[in-house]
């Protein structure tokens, strides 16, 4: 069996073991047994428990990022892009519950260097979403620059006239919206992962409506749907 | 000086020290020095570094929860309640940057029992927001039960007819919206804490518009404002 294939098997076993038992409690013996290989081989390939855990985080991060990127349809209408991106995210999480558990629970709660790896993924997703929102506003019906400044006494730095993204929405606010959206998706994915009676479609629909129509829209029966 | 006052001084010093140096690097010597007391007194009052850290997390959790609860105006219009609650949250975070750093960064990245303490705070905030959203929908112009089910192929568990909150929106979806909103607020607060040129009002306004008007509203110039 080629090294690459064997290594992926070890990572599969490690991701599942870390997710189920937790980083601290999971032993290299457990992981070798789950992978059906000897412990020395795990050490030979992945060096140490810390390196193995880091490799797991990176693989799961890359896979999640790739799933979201692949789901977005460049050039589609903004709401469709958002719908597809969110669906890509929630579907990947639903299909990879162990990977998600490693990312959101294990990697973030065992200090450095693991937390930094997850932060990197988060930064990439925020950048992706920031680009999508800026792009959407640049094609918006009402140019975002026409939108009044956020707060009555807001700082000059958030003046729509300064540091604007294409279309006119202040860059600061585009980035803030992206952080809000990524945080909402993350929080919802943590809640819904493996929850009986809630599918990836349900989570996507809830968040799509929240992010797109807003609570006011929902309360007034204005609901977004993919078929509209 | 009464014990209670002395203890609060120690906690003030500890919160700041943990926030600035991190849980691992902060020593009881650092904390005693910052509090202007002897190290044995810190041990006498707070027992151990772990107990001291736990006491810090609990104090900051309680203060944040109390600030949000105090900010909400019972009986006010739903958008005003949301605006006030978010403003209470972001203002408290802006006024307590060390407390927030302890909660979102230190407490969550150093395993148990600390992560569980922060989870407790999160659960309380989600419950509070769930109640507010359910209440808002129960008074909505269009009863939420009239809103079509989320996804074409959605599960019977999310059928609006079953397990409805007052007003008709499925309980599952109200709770999911609350998780999304709390996650968005948390993510934005992490980004904005101490960010130059962004005030608590800016963060509140951004998230209020996101949560209330949605991206579609923003793109079409429908922006919520407290003065409308």
Automatic annotation (TrEMBL), chains A, B:
Alphabetical keyword list: DNA-binding, Transcription, Transcription regulation
Keyword Transcription regulation found: yes
DNA-binding residue intervals: 27-46
Pfam family, one: TetR_C_46
Domain HTH tetR-type, chain residue ranges per copy: 4-64
InterPro entries named among the record's database cross-references: DesT_TetR_C (IPR054129), Homeodomain-like_sf (IPR009057), HTH-type_TetR-like_transc_reg (IPR050109), HTH_TetR (IPR001647)
Location of region: Disordered: 147-169
Entry annotated with the keyword DNA-binding: yes
Gene3D superfamilies assigned: Tetracycline Repressor, domain 2 (1.10.357.10)
Biased composition annotated in UniProt, kind: Low complexity: 147-164
Official protein name in the record: TetR/AcrR family transcriptional regulator
Species for this entry: Streptomyces thermolineatus
């Amino acid at each position: 069996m080629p090294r690459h294939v064997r290594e992926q098997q070890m990572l599969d076993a490690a991701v599942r073991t870390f997710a189920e038992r937790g980083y601290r409690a999971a032993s290299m013996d457990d992981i070798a047994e789950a992978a059906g290989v000897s412990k020395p081989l795990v050490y030979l390939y992945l060096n140490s428990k810390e390196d193995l855990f880091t490799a797991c985080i990176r693989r799961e991060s890359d896979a999640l990022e790739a799933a979201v990127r692949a789901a977005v349809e460049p050039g589609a209408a903004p709401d469709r892009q958002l719908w597809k991106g969110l669906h890509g995210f929630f579907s990947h999480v639903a299909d990879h519950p162990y990977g998600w558990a490693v990312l959101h629970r294990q990697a973030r709660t065992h200090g450095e260097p693991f937390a930094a790896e997850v932060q990197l993924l988060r930064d990439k997703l925020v950048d992706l979403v920031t680009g999508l929102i800026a792009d959407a506003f640049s094609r918006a019906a009402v140019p975002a620059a026409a939108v009044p400044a956020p707060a009555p006494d807001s700082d000059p730095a958030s003046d729509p006239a300064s540091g604007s993204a294409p279309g006119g929405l202040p860059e600061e606010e585009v980035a803030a919206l992206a952080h809000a959206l990524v945080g909402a998706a993350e929080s919802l994915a943590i809640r819904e992962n493996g929850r009986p009676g809630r599918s990836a479609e349900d989570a996507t629909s809830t968040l799509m409506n929240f992010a797109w129509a807003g609570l006011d829209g929902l309360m007034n029966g204005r609901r977004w749907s993919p078929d509209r």
